[in-house]
Amino acid sequence: GSILSEFVEKHGLKLVFLQPSEQIIDASNIRDTNNVMSLVMQLQLAYDESEKKSERLAEVWNKKKKDIKDGRILTRHLPAWIILDEENDKLLVDKAKGKSLNTIFKLSADGLGCQKILNYLQENKIPAIARPNKRTPDPTWTINYISALLNDRRLLGEMQPKTQRGNNRRKTDGAVVRDYFPKVIDEDLFNKSSQQKKYRKT
Question: Is 149 exposed, middle or buried (0-12, 13-18, 19+ CB in 10 A)?
Answer without folding.
Answer: buried
